[in-house]
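> forwarded from #structure-qc
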């Protein structure tokens, strides 16, 4: 968490920690899913795991610890996969880091009508104003949410944009994984 502001909320710190971790792996990565667990609870209930994660020596126990999950399948739509997830009670929240192509709002008027999903994806990929972006979105069981956006062309920790409503659709899909 070298570039994470300590004044930020635990959820913001977790999102930035995940963003920094995924950024260290480079671009063109698959989607990555993380469970967010209460650090103090993890240290108390799972000391061996906390030690393996390097949390035993960490003085800060208030906060959230991201734990990467198994690979996100690439052979099915992301929303369909998220619909299959159910978290145990020990998981306080979850986060997903995913890369996408985005267009500026001004490009919406240029989208040809009647394109299928594959045709639209190709149209966006070929658009001269497209931006490659990594989105890291996290939600907690209590409804709190946070996001971090990193543009490939401005790939530095100081250029990461954060906010709670930057990727509302993905935040809703993640929140649904906690629905009873």
């Amino acid at each position: 968490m070298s570039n994470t502001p300590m004044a930020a909320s635990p959820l913001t710190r977790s999102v930035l920690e995940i963003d920094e971790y995924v950024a260290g792996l480079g671009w063109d990565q698959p989607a990555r899913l993380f469970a967010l667990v209460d650090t103090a609870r993890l240290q108390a209930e799972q000391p061996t795991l906390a030690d393996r994660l390097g949390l035993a020596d960490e003085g800060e126990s208030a906060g959230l610890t991201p734990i990467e999950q198994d690979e996100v399948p690439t052979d099915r739509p992301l929303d369909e996969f998220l619909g299959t997830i159910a978290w145990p009670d020990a998981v306080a929240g979850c986060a997903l880091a995913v890369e996408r192509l985005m267009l500026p709002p001004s490009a919406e008027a240029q989208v040809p009508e009647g394109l299928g999903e594959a045709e639209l994806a190709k149209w966006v990929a070929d658009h001269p104003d497209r931006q490659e972006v990594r989105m890291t979105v996290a939600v907690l069981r209590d409804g709190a949410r946070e996001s971090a956006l990193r543009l490939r062309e401005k790939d530095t920790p100081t250029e990461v944009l954060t906010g709670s409503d930057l990727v509302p659709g993905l935040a809703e899909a993640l929140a649904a994984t906690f629905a009873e």
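QC bot note: Residues 105 and 129 are 10 Å apart (CA to CA). DSSP finds six helices and six strands in the chain.
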